[in-house]
Design brief:
The protein has about 375 residues and is of the alpha/beta class. It folds into two domains: about 30-165, Copper Amine Oxidase, Chain A, domain 1, CATH 3.30.457; about 175-375, Glycoside hydrolase/deacetylase (TIM Barrel). Helix content is about 35%, strand content about 25%. It is built from twelve helices and 22 strands. Strands 15, 16, 17, 20, 21 and 22 form a six-stranded parallel beta sheet that branches. The chain has a five-stranded antiparallel beta sheet with strand order 3-2-1-14-13, covered by helices on one side.
Length: about 375
């Protein structure tokens, strides 16, 4: 081979190799924007697909026991990108790449091989991907809703760098019974108590409360206002890192009795969207501001996929007579196994009350649990 032919051969070889690399190593920058948000994908028993509660026009397919969804749905939810070359196929979500050849029964993810069960298929001009078989190894929460049989997949590409953002409360999406609303306590003989804190107007107090519960190997639940989350995202991240639950308390704290039904729905959805932008969710817990609630409003909340959480007792930390001493006295008076208390992370007075009452209750044998832990019987 003369030098000219050799030079052309090298050029063609380099072009082919670069093209192959470009196809298989899809830059993660193409899978950003809102695709890094938390997304909840559900497939019902009729194979209808919903994304964050909104039904989509495309349906899933079933082959045996395997549910497959169009790649376009995975792209819409988490920015999935597909590429094919003579070397094989690659599917990218965030910074993770699944690679396989042809109709291979397995695919390669990171350093391991995983079974497809059913290989990806072309149907109606679309590529369909086995949902559980891909998303579970990716790190998604994958479950089945006990009352409906719906398949649930919750994921955010933010979890790839910060796995602790994968909240423990997601497991409740499988078991939560939306027919029981306004949970105020759980019947149990175990000495467990669920402290919940609304609003989070004082981010410093909220974080110190979360850290205090952690020192007693306990958890609590924060019902947050979306506008406050926007101002203090690091406080929310600390709560989640410590294992606390996050509930929906609307975007701006209006009383449901003072707004239209449509506005209430928007308030709930907007609060959820603020958390979604952090790779988090408030599902499946909601609490009405001011406890302004009735059966009609609760049905609206249920239709949004939330369980209304009430409280058996308030710790009296919002009125003009509020003080740490009053809050402590209230808890002492009404403490019993399985009860839900509500306080407000709006001042250091609430933290001061918790600093007094938690060691006292711990000496009595009480454990401090989140709403999820209370409902699970932990």
């Amino acid at each position: 081979m003369n030098s000219r032919k050799l030079r052309w051969f090298v050029i063609v070889l380099l072009v082919y190799c670069c093209a192959e690399v470009a196809l298989l190593s899809v830059p993660s920058a193409q899978a950003v924007d809102t695709t890094s948000w938390f997304r909840l994908l559900t497939v019902d028993t009729n194979l209808a697909i919903s994304l964050n509660g909104s039904k989509l026009s495309t349906k899933a397919e079933r082959i045996g026991d395997t549910i497959l969804v169009p790649l376009s749905i995975l792209h819409q939810a988490w920015g999935a990108i597909y590429a094919v070359s003579p070397a094989g196929s690659a599917l990218t979500i965030g910074s993770r790449h699944a690679v396989w050849k042809g109709m291979s029964a397995t695919y390669h993810l990171d350093l391991l091989d995983f079974p497809w069960g059913v290989a990806p298929v072309l149907s109606g001009g679309q590529l369909y991907i086995p949902l559980r078989e891909l998303m579970e190894p990716m790190g998604a929460f994958v479950g089945k809703q006990a009352s409906t049989g719906d398949m649930i997949v919750a994921y955010s590409t933010k979890w790839q760098k910060e796995p602790w953002l994968r909240q423990g409360q997601l497991t409740q999406l499988e078991t939560v019974d939306l027919t029981h609303t306004n949970v105020k306590r759980v019947a149990t003989t175990r000495k467990v108590v669920a402290f919940t804190f609304d609003d989070n107007w004082d981010a410093v107090a909220a974080v110190r409360i979360a850290e205090l519960f952690d020192t007693y190997n306990g958890h609590c639940t924060f019902f947050v206002i979306g506008t406050n989350v926007r101002m203090h995202p690091d406080a929310i991240r600390t709560m989640v890192r410590l294992g606390d639950d996050i509930g929906n308390h609307t975007l701006s704290h209006p009383a449901a009795t003072n707004i239209t039904d449509a506005t209430l729905i928007k308030q709930i959805q907007a609060c959820e969207q603020v958390l979604n932008g952090m790779g988090l969710t408030t599902r499946p817990y909601f609490r009405f501001p001011y406890f302004a609630e009735d059966s009609h409003f609760m049905r609206i909340v249920t239709d949004q996929g939330y369980l209304t959480i009430g409280a058996m007792w308030t710790i009296e930390d919002t009125g003009p007579e509020r003080s740490a001493a009053l809050s402590v006295a209230t808890v002492r008076r009404f403490i019993s196994p399985g009860v839900i208390f509500v306080g407000h992370a709006n001042s250091m007075a609430t933290f001061d009350a918790m600093k007094v009452i938690l060691p006292e209750l711990a000496r009595q044998g009480y454990s401090f649990v989140s709403i999820s832990e209370l409902l699970r019987g932990h």
